[in-house]
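pasting input
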Amino acid sequence: MPPKELVLETNDLGYAYAPDRFAIRHLSVGLHRGEVLGLLGRNGAGKTTTVRLLTTLLPPTEGSATVLGMDLRTGGRALRSRLGVVLQSESLDFVSVERNLTLYAFLWGVPREVAKSRAEEMIELFELEAARPRKPWALSGGERRRFQVARELMHDMDILFLDEPTVGLDAIARRRILRYLKVRAERGLSIIFTTHILHEADLLCDRIAILHLGKLIALDTAEGLKQKYGGAREVSVGFVTPLPAPLRLELVAGLQARGAVVVEPVSAVTADRIAFRATGAEELLPWLSQWAHSRSIAIERMSVEEATLESAFLGMIGEADEPEDGEEKEPPTDHLPPGRLGGLA
Amino acid sequence: MKLPPVLRLVVRNFASNLDPLTVTIRFGQPAVTIIVLGTMFSTIISSSVTGGTSYTAFLVPGMIAFQMITGGVVSGNLFWLDRRWSMVEQVFSGPFLRAEYLGALVLTSLLFSLVGVGIMMLVGLPFIGLPSLSVLGTGAVLLTVALGSVFFAGLLIALGTRLRSANAYFSIQSFLQLFVIFLSTVYYPVTSKTPKVLAVTFYVNPLTYAANTIRDAFSGSLGGSDLVSLGILALLAAITFGLAVLAFRSMDLGPIQ
């Protein structure tokens, strides 16, 4: 299969809110047509700044980026007219939900008939029927968020930016939106998606970029990240018959010698099982099998805790948070002064 | 057919933020002023004070001039609400130029003022009849209101880019309105008995130039002083619009209350 077209590419992109004070720096990342790229990171990691940079709300102070073949700095209206943006902050007009949808479509120049049928589709898809005649301030938090995503989907676009679109949504609404986005991505829509709900990123994203203190520290598939950064995982082993005391001690010593931390030591009461945590837990399994086999001990069951994106994320952020000797940490970016708009472009 | 971006934004401005109650109050207040204040003061104020006309005939051009504030306030408030509800960012991330958004605000203000002019003329009709406006006079009235609405829109938009609290914005806006209206010749003329400090202050106020020019247009006595007034209004409008553009270029999009 030919490689998919690259619709967005950044090279060392950065934004400094003051001389030498960067909210994001050295960001080099690509997005392919139909790909969903997740941006994960702690509060103030630079996710929203990245979205604002890539949607021209902030002017980059260093590096370059190409979006849909256009330079980010000079693309202006031609570039923005092919983007969709769901901002983190609530944005709304003071008319009913239905009118908001059609009015937004009008702003984007969507023909009236198309707008009407699309509004019906969005109202149904995002379960906004009851909210249809209500003004946005009369909606619940979840309804407002659903409305905001629905409104952005009223117009056509090539790339959709979603800055924490599922905040405040119940599990069913969240799943419904994610499923719909997945379908749109399969039809060719490229999506950049920020979230704090790691399970969502795991479900939706083809690749995930982890940002920390304004820097990209990892970029891979969810599986790749779990493999690389999943960290210590727990292994549980059950034996057919309880182990005699000398063998119990020998097993614990053997595991500890290989870097494992025994979390449920075999005692007289629990002599038929053992649990331990280890980084690269799978690598200990052949040794354990061999050890049992050579001592004619039958293993009844053996299970390894599944690596999660959360454990990978925690592993990465934990490592990145540890400053090296003499290294000064950057200030948290959630205390940045608000961004400037730049010139009239 | 797709409308040009500025017009799409103007339609959106009218459709989204102008609820019937607000519109009624905005136009209703000066209309009631003409009816009540005009009627009541006509009985107690001598026409010699108001240049030989009834007080209502004096007041109607003043209320027409007042429409430039109404228009300016409408677009200033629109902008403030757009900032408050993040619609500025939403529009800026769409297929619009920032200049178009600013232009649409000013155009909204202009249209609102001109509609207001029509309404005030209609309200004044039963009291003063149809004013004998020449083509030049009509042009002078429209140009005056247009320049004035650009002035006030520019001023309030520039203010709106800088203030982060709704309380501060609306307090300053109300204070400005009060100050501008009462320290002008909208309600009363400057006479030889007017205290000097007040008379000078009146002529620092663009609304005075607007009210005087419109009165002269209504009475068919436009002259050189009105040309100077229009020139001053044009200059002030250019200054506040320039301020609004500058303020837009460096506007914070951070959270506001």
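fyi The radius of gyration of chain B is 19 Å.
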